[in-house]
Amino acid sequence: RGVAVVSGRDSADAKSRPCATLLRAANTFLRFGSFEVTLPHGSGHHAPSAFDWHLLRRLADHCISAYYPHILNVSEDEDEEDEDLRAAPRYCEFLLDVTRRTARLTAAWQCLGAAHGMLNTDNLSIS
């Protein structure tokens, strides 16, 4: 979340351009990129916990309980025999909720004219 924006000039020169500094704060340091540690290796990507789906599930469960507690009420698919797939409705709702919040945040930033590389997986908070 943006806390403050300070505007100024990039130098004391008369031809200097306007610039600004943004101070951000967040409930957590968990970012989209936090989930990338479990991605399979490939294309130059070397995740430290590649294929560790148990870690991915624990991370998602933590995020849901800490920042999206309303999703805890999403029912599991009781007819599904596979334990991971049984919980899929909860994780789908988590993904949709994060996507909705991120889309709103991105739109708000774009309304202010911020349309650059700041909105990437290292900078976008899960909370």
Secondary structure class reads alpha+beta
Helix content: 25-40%
Identify the strand order in the major beta sheet: 1-2
The span between the termini is 10 Å
Q: Hey, roughly how much beta strand do the residues contain?
A: 5-15%
Give the biggest sheet: 2 strands, antiparallel
Question: What topology emerges from the helices and strands here?
Answer:
Layout: E1 2-9, E2 18-24, H1 53-67, H2 83-86, H3 88-111
Antiparallel strand pairs: 1-2
What does it look like?
This protein has helices at residues 53-67, 83-86, 88-111; strands at 2-9, 18-24. By secondary structure, the protein is an alpha+beta fold. A hairpin with an 8-residue loop joins strand 1 and strand 2. The longest helix is centred in the last third of the chain and has 24 residues, at 88-111. It starts with a strand and ends in a 16-residue tail after the last helix.
Main features:
single chain, 127 residues, alpha+beta, two-stranded antiparallel ribbon, 3 helices, 2 strands, 34% helix
Summarize the structure.
The protein has 127 residues and is α+β, with helices and mostly antiparallel strands.
